[in-house]
Amino acid sequence: MQTELGYCSEPTAPSCVNGFGRFDDQYDFDNCKRNVENFNSEIESFVDCKQREINEANDEAEQAAEEARSKATKAQDVARKAKNEVERLSSDYSQAVNDFNTRAGN
Compositional bias (Basic and acidic residues) at which positions (predicted)? Predict the structure, then answer.
């Protein structure tokens, strides 16, 4: 079962941090500070989202590996059964030849 992983929106740094020189006034400073704090919060949310993606991908990989192991085990069981049948029939043939030779006096 494959699910599509969620989309994590990568945040971008607020444009106010790229200005030249000092802030024009306290309002610009406070506004930019809030934007930077929000950016930090957005980064934390992004990291959480990416961690969920990682966990989902790991779960899917483990499930796929388990399914593959199960199929391999079933295939090995089929091969083992077929081999046993061939060996049994080979033994039956050898016994039939021996019985025939005994009856024929050989």
Answer: 77-86
Q: Residues 46-86: pLDDT tens digits?
A: 999 999 999 999 999 999 999 999 999 999 999 999 999 99
- From residue 12, give the alpha-carbon distance in Å to each of 5, 9, 32, 46, 65: 22, 9, 14, 11, 37
- Residue 80, CB-side half-sphere exposure with 13 Å CA sphere: 6
Query: DSSP readout, 34-46?
Result: HHHHHHHHHHHHH
CA-CA distance, 53 to 78, in Å (whole number)? 37
Parse the chain into domains and list their residue ranges.
15-104
What angle is formed at CA 77 by the lines to CA 69 and CA 65, rounded to 5 degrees?
5
Residues listed for the chain:
106
Question: How many angstroms separate the CA atoms of 3 and 5, rounded?
Answer: 6
CA atoms of 27 and 88, how far apart (whole Å): 91
